[in-house]
Each structure stands twice: as structure tokens, then as C-alpha cells.
Amino acid sequence: MTDIRAEVCLPSMDLRGDIGFFTKILGMRMEMIYPADDPCVAVFSGHGLAVRLDAEQKGEPGQINIRCAAPDTFADDARDLTSPGGTKIGITELNPPLLMPQTAHSFVVRRLADQAPWVIGRAGMHYRDLIPDRLGGSIIASHIRIPDGGPVPDMVHYHTVGFQLIFCYRGWVDLVYEDQGEPFRLHAGNCVIQPPEIRHRVLFASDNIEVIEIGVPAEHVTTIDHDMELPNGPANPSRDFSGQRFVHHKADQATWAPFRVPGYQSRDTTIAAHTNDVAGVHVIRAGAGAPDWTKHTTDILFTFVMDGTMTLEGEGRDPYPLEPGDAFVIPPDMKTRYADPSPDLELLEVSLPAAFKTVIGA
User: Fold this and answer.
1) Model confidence, pTM
2) What is the bridge-based pairing of β-strands 150-151 and 140-146?
3) CB-based contact 169:306 (threshold 8 Å)
4) Where are the beta strands (DSSP E) in 7-73?
């Protein structure tokens, strides 16, 4: 098989100076230089990169980012350098820490009838943003659909996140997860959490599959794992991933109990118990008693209307009649009431963190 190598080609305004910089400062190896009597091209390799510097190449100087486990020791604590020939060098963390933005609290109501645009994202999936301002980057809530069922062109990958929920809203989807055994089918009404950096893959979807995906923070990195094959084994379903354990909640095995909001019942997905209260996820329906005014103390409280209708009343706000596909966020300490629930009302509520107080009759 023919050997193939790729190089990044950059201009150099001082090739002789760059030779010492790339070998001594950056620790790269010189592979080639020519012509011998008056060099104008030199090729260097190192850190998974091949660079061809050309003194006769026109254009603006390029930039190289070097990611390393100990960036402070790589180039004597320098993070931004410029070679004699003009190439800019950025020294960064190999695995930067996950930064959780401070929540910018706001009262948000997102209606399906408002025709928010669907955007084609990863693996051909259609995404609809349920929290347009994303609360200052602290959370993303996406309504995702795949119009045509069949195999999904996905790869084994993972997300660097603080919390991630996949709730199957309509249809079904086949999934496989690291250390969780064979692929399984996620049916409507069921959900999973994807603990930080658990490898997984979407395999097959029904026609018109729809899911609700919650991610914290809003912007997080997705990394392709080209080496892992799923399913892997042996299974280890109780494995801890950065303090969280995988959950596959099944609606037909859940029990209903009185909810924190008067007049409603809920089924607990056990996600709070499996994430050390990082997040709580409940499915809610109308129960006995009359709805009352409440307020909460958690940081983020997101709700999606899956079925039925209700009226969301907020202190100092006009009432919002809600129907399937609508979503809302209630900031802490805001008085609200879930009024006029229809008998078939069903809500999905996500709270971050899971442990908080609810004041009734506020």
C-alpha cells in the first residue's frame, strides 16, 4: 500500500531562526531541509503534526495550537509565542476543565406554534432550541427529531458535560452504551442519562422519532472515539462516571406519587439518586386537589409539555395557555401556578440541582 503523509504548509519570514525555535523550544524533529547551500524549505514533525515551513510561500503567518497535559512546563510557562518566522503558537490544556457558566435567570416560554426554526445538526438530526437565551450558557434544551426512520449515521462518541438527559418523546430509538451491555430500544416515555464521557452510539430510529435532550452547560465538546467498539464487555452497569451512574428509566416500571406542586402527581426517574442530586427528572400528570401558587429555590427549573393542555400563570405576567410541544423555564423565587390542567396533561420537568425547596401558597 502506498505510504501517504499529510503536512501543514506555512510561510516563514526567517527560516534559519525557525529551525532553532521549532527544534529547541517546541521540541519537534527536523525531517527535511533544502536546498543545502541556501535553505528555503524545512519540514518538522512532532506532537502528532508535520509542518512544512517555506520561505518563499506567500500569505499571512499561520497558527499552531499545542495541547499538553502540563502546559505551564512546556515552554517555560509561556502560553502564547511567535516564532522568528512569524508562526503563532498557542499552548493549551490537553483536557481543559469543564466550566459551568453562572445561570442568567429568566422567565422563558417557548411555544411550538411560534414556528421556531428547525436546524439540521449532527448525524442529520433536526434540532429545535427550547431555551433561546440558554440562561447565559448554563443549559441547552433541544427538541430533536429524525423524520425518516432507519439506520442513523452515528459514530461512537462521548460528551464532556456536567449533565445530559435523553427523553424519548415520540417513537423509539436503538442505543448502545459503554459498559451497559447489549444495544437496547428506548421507547416513548422512557429516558436515559448520559453520564460525563460515557461512550455511546445511536443505531436505529423509528419513523418520526422525537426526543428531548438536556445538556449542561449549553456549549460542550463532543469527541469521536475511533478505537472503542460497542457493545464492549463485560458489562458493568454500576460503573461510576465522574460521580454519576447510567440510568435507563422505564415508564411501565415506575410508580406515581404526590408531586411537590399541589394538584399533581409524578413518577421519579431515580436520576437524582444516580447523579448525587446533580439533577432531578420527573414526569408529571394532573392529580387530586386544586392547583396552588408555588415558588422554588433551585437554580434551573425546565418543563416541557408532552401531552394535554394547561395554563401557566406567573406573578405579574399574562397567563400562557400551553399545549404539546411548548416549554418553559421558571426562575427561582418566582410565584407561578399550573392552572386548568386537562385530564391527559403530561409534563417533563428537569431541575438542577435536584434538591431544593418548594413554597406552597407563596
Assistant:
1) 0.89
2) unpaired
3) yes
4) 8-11, 29-34, 41-46, 49-54, 63-68
